[in-house]
Amino acid sequence: MPRKEIELEHSIEHLSILDENGSLDQDLMPELSKKQLLRFHRGMLLARRFDERLLLLQRQGHIGTFAPVKGQEAAQIGAVANLKAEDWMLPAFREIAAILWRGTPPSALIIFNAGYNEGGKIPEQQRDFPNAVPVASQLPHAVGVAYGIKYRKKQEVVLTFFGDGATSEGDFHEALNFAAVFGVPAVFVCQNNHWAISVPREKQTKSKTLAQKALAYGIPGIQVDGNDVLAVYAATQEAVDRARSGGGPTLIECITYRLTMHTTVDDPTKYRQEEEVKIWEKRDPLPRFQKFLQEAGHLSEKDIDDLEKEIKEQLDAEWSEAQQQMEKLGNPLDMFEYIYAQLPPYLQEQKEFFSQFIEAQEEADHA
Ligand SMILES: Cc1ncc(C[n+]2csc(CCOP(=O)(O)OP(=O)(O)O)c2C)c(N)n1
Ligand SMILES: [Mg+2]
């Protein structure tokens, strides 16, 4: 039998609309009103300032560890901005910008990061899943939700976020295969920030792009400049429209960079070069978008100053709110809640014992 070629389509598109100097490719500009553009800006700035605030709170000992979003705001806002209220969003653990955009108040995120379950409660009617810390575990969940939507013949879409590191997990491959075979309305948004803690992208996979992994599963894949909110928006819009109209899933690779530590317990200077960070600081999505908005006449220096002030006041109020709420929380008996609808007898017994123990302690303290 002869050897013969099987013809495969194998090119991957890379999309960039607003370059790192803030110059726009007019032909590719998606249709967006000034109001929408300014909403994107507010979403990105709020996420940046809130992230900085969380870092301060962590360093002051008010909250536990968290995964900063700094540098990835455009990849998140450009993607979720395409979702309607009835759509679903499944985050990994770095999706601060996306979560705020969807409507979770900053105070809830503070409370969650301070270790209280109550902070993790998704507001009623908001179709988001909780943070998924086990890498890539949210992808099969997203496909399950999307399968349910298709089964019920709804017009909803599921969007899930994950990192470059997540593409090495079995869950990623199983999820993409299942999503493709069953043609479910899912959008997979990979934020390739070049690092999975200390493992560089080059050691994660031999593939030239992460987007090309879509080809193996027979679905559309595209690579975009993830620090360009307009490119992310345009690529996700296509994917969301396709999913909603029955065209199945899409994989989007957003090229971005984590400008700071993996989490607050990580020291990136141990594994990456300062020069690399400097290059990516120049590609920061926020000043680039501000420059574009200023040149388009949509935003002035004064507008930015006013917005900074407004956001600072908002975050001060959120911190006060979080503190007030946390004063009412923190009952150690809560450890028995949230896992079982009905406690098994052995845990019920332990809960009663512990409750009496606490009471006895309190009495002793007041004696
Ligand atoms: C299944 C699993 N393995 C290992 C870890 C530890 N861990 C947490 S984040 C992370 C790296 C994730 O990298 P990536 O997917 O690129 O996301 P990023 O942190 O860059 O946003 C690892 C290995 C984990 N949380 N879950
Ligand atoms: Mg990563």
UniProtKB/TrEMBL annotation:
SUPFAM superfamilies from the UniProt entry: Thiamin diphosphate-binding fold (THDP-binding) (SSF52518)
Q: What InterPro entries does the entry give?
A: Alpha-ketoacid_DH_E1_comp, DH_E1, PdhA/BkdA, THDP-binding
User: Keywords, A to Z?
Assistant: Oxidoreductase, Pyruvate, Thiamine pyrophosphate
EC number per UniProt: 1.2.4.1
Q: Which Gene Ontology biological process is one annotated for this entry? A: branched-chain amino acid catabolic process
Dehydrogenase E1 component domain span: 43-326
Domain of life per record? Bacteria
Catalyses which reaction?
Answer: N(6)-[(R)-lipoyl]-L-lysyl-[protein] + pyruvate + H(+) = N(6)-[(R)-S(8)-acetyldihydrolipoyl]-L-lysyl-[protein] + CO2
Q: Which cofactor does it need?
A: thiamine diphosphate
What NCBIfam families does the record point to? PDH_E1_alph_x (TIGR03181)
State how it assembles: Heterodimer of an alpha and a beta chain.
Known function: The pyruvate dehydrogenase complex catalyzes the overall conversion of pyruvate to acetyl-CoA and CO(2). It contains multiple copies of three enzymatic components: pyruvate dehydrogenase (E1), dihydrolipoamide acetyltransferase (E2) and lipoamide dehydrogenase (E3).
Record protein name field? Pyruvate dehydrogenase E1 component subunit alpha
